[in-house]
Specification:
Largest sheet: none
Radius of gyration: 19 Å
Structural class: mainly alpha
Helix content: over 70%
Shape: flat
Distance between the termini: 41 Å
Order of helices and strands: HHH
Number of domains: 1
Strand content: under 5%
């Protein structure tokens, strides 16, 4: 099974249990900080991959 089909195979009840487990582990005040950090990490990754692809495109045009 691929990763996408595993995610789709998890039902709504399982997602609720996962959310409750995260809430119990990290607490209500810590979750927004974790999500902010996750969001900024994803943004940095996208920016870095975009910069990398732009560098690759410009180097291809020079040749």
């Amino acid at each position: 099974m691929s990763g996408a089909s595993i995610v789709l195979a998890i039902g709504p009840g399982s997602w609720v249990l996962i959310a409750l487990a995260v809430l119990l582990l990290f607490g209500g005040k810590k979750i927004p900080e974790l999500m902010r950090g996750l969001g900024s990490g994803i943004k940095e990754f996208k920016d870095a991959s975009k910069d990398d692809s732009e560098k690759k495109d410009t180097s291809d045009k020079k040749e």
